[in-house]
Amino acid sequence: MADKKPSSKHISETASGLSRKKFLGRFALAAAGITIVPRHVLGGTGYTAPSDRIHLGYIGTGRQARGGLSGWFLDRDDALIVAGCDVDSLKLEAFVNRVNSHYAEETGRSGYNDCEGYSDFRELLSRDDIDAVVIATPDHWHGVQGVMALDAGKDVYCEKPVSLTVREGRALVEATRRNDCIFQTGSQQRSGDGFLKASELVINGYIGDIEKVVVSVGGPPEPCDDLRSQLVPDYLDWNMWLGPAQLTYYNEFYAPHIDWNGWARWRYCDRFGGGMMTDWGAHMFDIAQWALGMDDTGPVEVIPPDNSEFGVLTYKYANGIPMVREDFGIGNAVRFIGTEGTIDVSRSVLEVPDNLENQQIGGNDIRLYDSEHHYLDWVEAIRNRTKPICDVEVGHRSATVCTIGNIAYKVNRPLRWDPEQEQFENDEEANGMLHRSYRGPWRGLI
Q1: 13-188: what CATH class?
Q2: Quick one: CATH architecture of 189-221+277-371+393-442?
């Protein structure tokens, strides 16, 4: 992995080295015979100055953000959450209060209120002191918010799937590269030992030649046209929640109250999500692509159930390997079927042939990226200016597999896919589904 040059945006000293302004200032002080004592020395062992932390802003402060996405960073002494943004004032207030309460206890400052809340993510992005952002909004926002964050010079951690359309995904890749930013996709399974072991066994041929891959995830989204219109609650900016999506009446199904004990259900509706195909598929198809060595490409054919020899949604790769979406008895899992054995892997299951239970990957074998922790991997990538384990290109390619599968379901005919051009061959209707038209001020951004 080649090192990347730090961008010109604000980054804390330990993340990117001294800025030119700070370097010249210290050079002048040194010339005058003045010695600078590091702040961590003044603060004692284990002290990290706020200016030496990566400053984080959160776009979307719902259940995902208030859980592990913020909890892990709150416990780090090399990161500092300084802002949150949400169109739901109740969720935003809960997030900001939690962050400020944590730091108040950590610092002993009873009135700590340095973490600020915003209702418009553009205000958050305008802050020069924010190094990186975590995007945990509904999927229909990922493309726009991600590109705007990258163009503002922020490094990005974006929940999967990184985009709702193929064009959005490619726009995210291009924005990451032109701004020399670090982009981590929230496909945290790649940082799990079981998925790493399964993928290395597969890619190195320990179960022989792969004859078939089975991905067990839910199906495509639904129109959700039968939901009744409800009054918009006073704590929610519904127009901003919709953002680039087409105007739709409010229903709590899309944006539930903070007390809702479950995941928001917008993901099942084709206006805002891709169903379980993109929700869990972004995890499981991602592992399939990793183990097949297809991170920078994808299938060349997508066949809906009625036309498939397997009777289920089928993808075919250029090397002839078929990958199907089918329930094989383990939910949200991947099965690799080889000429010399089968491997099943999920978050709770790793089943390998008996002779491979204690198999160590050999020194001459292909070694995949081994990440100790998904969030830590992003932090280290920011500091080192290197690609993280689930770089934007990887996230885009995995999301693309899910999205073109949904398109095949919709048109209900076999499609030829060109993974280099990211277009369907000779199919104007299918190609018209590779992006969606935006409304209002978001029109034309991607």
Answers
A1: alpha beta
A2: 2-Layer Sandwich (3.30)
